[in-house]
């Protein structure tokens, strides 16, 4: 989902087929055959690490949320950002 938000589209979007069943089969094949490195190309390695991790999970397996959070916290810090609680959508305080 987050790769869709970042990229704006996914390789399996817009695939055509004669029937819905065939279309879903094509989507499944494309999802399985698209290398994670291609899906996450142009983004920090943490995104590919995240996708590889969640793809390996069993359906009922609980993810290691701490591990996943730390992936992005470390990326955030490495990129020089500070967690000051101020976001793009936070109203600026008048000084």
UniProtKB/TrEMBL annotation:
InterPro entries: CK1_Ser-Thr_kinase, Kinase-like_dom_sf. PANTHER family: CASEIN KINASE-RELATED. This is Non-specific serine/threonine protein kinase. It comes from Euroglyphus maynei.
